[in-house]
Design goal:
1 helix, alpha+beta, single chain, two-stranded antiparallel ribbon
């Protein structure tokens, strides 16, 4: 789902699904829950999905690229 900012630029909303990890789940590493990651907008690498990363870093990175054309 996308939403439009006041400046007319559209952004897609991201959703994170949390799954109850079990021994047979791909969401576990050695029986412990694996960290939830998201794809960094600029580098394309997987980064931890901390609240700061999701709500601030990625939002500003997307705006820098989309609005100012920075790589």
């Amino acid at each position: 789902m996308s939403k439009e900012e006041p400046n007319g630029v559209e952004y897609e909303e991201a959703a994170v699904t949390v799954v109850d990890p079990s021994e047979n789940s791909p969401m576990t590493i050695g029986g412990k829950p694996a960290p939830i990651t998201i794809t960094d907008y600029i580098s394309g690498k997987e980064v931890r999905a901390t609240p700061e990363e999701v709500d601030a870093v990625q939002v500003f990175a997307r705006r820098l690229v989309d609005e100012l054309g920075n790589p």
